[in-house]
Amino acid sequence: VIEQVGAREILDSRGNPTVEVEVALDDGTLARAAVPSGASTGEHEAVELRDGDPTRYNGKGVERAVAAVLDEIGPDLAGVEAVDQRIVDQKLVDLDGTPDKSRLGANAILGVSLAVAKAAADSADLELFRYLGGPNAHVLPVPMLNILNGGAHADTEVDIQEFMIAPIGAESFRESLRWGTEVYHSLKSVLKSRGLSTGLGDEGGFAPSLSNNREALDIILVAIEKAGYVPGRDIGLALDVAATEFYGDGAYTFEGAKKSAEQLIGYYTKLVDDYPLVSIEDPLGEDDWDGWIRLTAELGERVQLVGDDLFVTNPDRLEEGITRRAANALLVKVNQIGTLSETLDAVALATSCGYKSMMSHRSGETEDTTIADLAVATGVGQIKSGAPARSERVAKYNQLLRIEETLADAARYAGDLAFPRFDP
Ligand code: PGA
Ligand code: ZN
C-alpha cells in the first residue's frame, strides 16, 4: 500500500532540471524514478511542466511539478495498492483533468507512475522486467545505437538527427552491444583520420560537420567494415530524420533547399535502394498524414517506418495511423504520454495491429533504467538509448546486460525477430 510520495528537482544529462519521484510503501519498500526530457519534442506530446521563472535555471526549473507531486498527487494516492497500476494511473489522469496532462505536468505524473511500478516490483521481490512482463518476458531488444548525431542534437549542418546502427546479426544482446561499440570506436578513428571533429552530440554520438546526409551513411559503412563487420548482414543502418524539425510553411528545408513531401519520398526510396537501411523514423512531419500515407505505400514493405512525433505514444493518434495506413511501427517514449498504463496500451495496440514498436529514451536522460526493463517486459525487440558511450545512455544497455544474464538460457536476442524481412 502506498504510504508516501516524495519528489525533488534533479539534473538531467543536458544540465536541465527534471523530476525525481520516490514512493514509499507501508511494508518499508522505497522506490525511485526519474523523468527524461526531449529536445525535438512533438507538438502532440503530453505537456512537461516547467516553472518559467527566469531567475532559476533559465525558466526550466520544475518546482511546480515537484509541488504537484507533494501537495496533490501524494495525498490522492495514499492508501492505494501499488500493484493496482491501472487504478493509480487512472487516478493520476483524473486528478490532472486535462487531455494533455498540463495541469499537474506529465513530468510529475510519469515520475509517480514509474516509481509506483518499481515499488510494487520491489515489494513483490521481482525484477521490474519480470513484474511488468510476467513469466514469458525473455526477448532482449536489438540496440539501435545512435553513433552520429545531427539535427537538433548537434550544432552542425547535418539535417538528419540520428544515424543508428542495428547489430541484427548478433547472437545475443551482449554480442550486439560489443559489435556496436567496436563500430563506434572505429567511427572515431575514421573521423580522426579524415580530420573531422570527434566531439559528441546530445545522445553521445559523434557530431562531425559533413556536407550532406549520404556522407554520414558512407562514413558509417566504412567504420562498420573497418571494425570487421558486414553491413546489412551483421549490422543494419537506421535513421531518425526528425523531419518535423525542418518542416514549415508546407515545405521541408533539407540539405539547403525547399523540398516537397513527394521529393523527400523520392530521396528515401533512393536511400533504401543504396544502403542497408532497416528503419527510418519520422521521415516526414508530425501532421503530414498524406505524405506518411504515400510514403508507407511506397516503402512500407521494404523498411520499417517509425512514427515518433507522428504518434507521440498516444493510442488515439496511433489508431488513426493504423486506420489510415501511415507508418508501420511505433516509437515508445514514456514521457510523451505520461503514464505506464497508457504506454502499455499503445504498445499493445501496435502489436495487435501488426505494427512493430521501438522502446526509446529521450535526448535529455538520467541514470534511470526503467526503459530497459520495459523493453524486455513488452518484448518489442528494439530499443534506442543513444550511443554506447556516456553513462546516461550506457546505463540502459548495461541494465539489459544484467537482464540477459538473469534470464540465462531463456534469453532470446531479437535480431531476426525484429527484422525478419531484412534477412540477407
Ligand atoms: P528528443 O529526440 O528526445 O530530443 O525528442 C529523440 C527522438 O526524436 O527520437
Ligand atoms: Zn524521433
TrEMBL record:
It is an enzyme of class 4 (lyase). This is Enolase. The keyword Mitochondrion does not apply. (2R)-2-phosphoglycerate binds at residues 161, 333, 362-363, 384. Pathway: Carbohydrate degradation; glycolysis; pyruvate from D-glyceraldehyde 3-phosphate: step 4/5. InterPro entries: Enolase (IPR000941), Enolase-like_C_sf (IPR036849), Enolase-like_N (IPR029017), Enolase_C (IPR020810), Enolase_CS (IPR020809), Enolase_N (IPR020811). Its cofactor is Mg(2+). It comes from Amycolatopsis antarctica. It comes from the Bacteria. Mg(2+) is required for catalysis and for stabilizing the dimer. Binds a second Mg(2+) ion via substrate during catalysis. Catalyzes the reversible conversion of 2-phosphoglycerate (2-PG) into phosphoenolpyruvate (PEP). It is essential for the degradation of carbohydrates via glycolysis. GO terms for molecular function: magnesium ion binding; phosphopyruvate hydratase activity. Residues 2-132 form the Enolase N-terminal domain. Transmembrane segments: none annotated. Belongs to the enolase family. Residues 137-421 form the Enolase C-terminal TIM barrel domain. It holds the Pfam family Enolase_N. It is found in: Cytoplasm; Secreted; Cell surface. Its main location: cytoplasm. Keywords: Cytoplasm, Glycolysis, Lyase, Magnesium, Metal-binding, Pyruvate, Secreted. The active site is at 203 (proton donor), 333 (proton acceptor). It catalyses: (2R)-2-phosphoglycerate = phosphoenolpyruvate + H2O. Mg(2+) binds at residues 240, 281, 308. Its EC number is 4.2.1.11. SMART domains: Enolase_C, Enolase_N. The keyword Cytoplasm applies.
